Write the structure tokens for this entry.
Amino acid sequence: MDAQEKNGADDALVPRLNLIEDQPLAARADAYAQVHDELRDQLEGGDVPRNG
């Protein structure tokens, strides 16, 4: 991922979080878990297998 792609991904995060905040609690929990997994994969290089 180059710098321009990274900035685009960063710019998309805030609107995505705003959409999540408008959802019911159960849906928010699932959506935040998905965001967490995606961010972890980015930070870890996507090469670490997930548990569960």
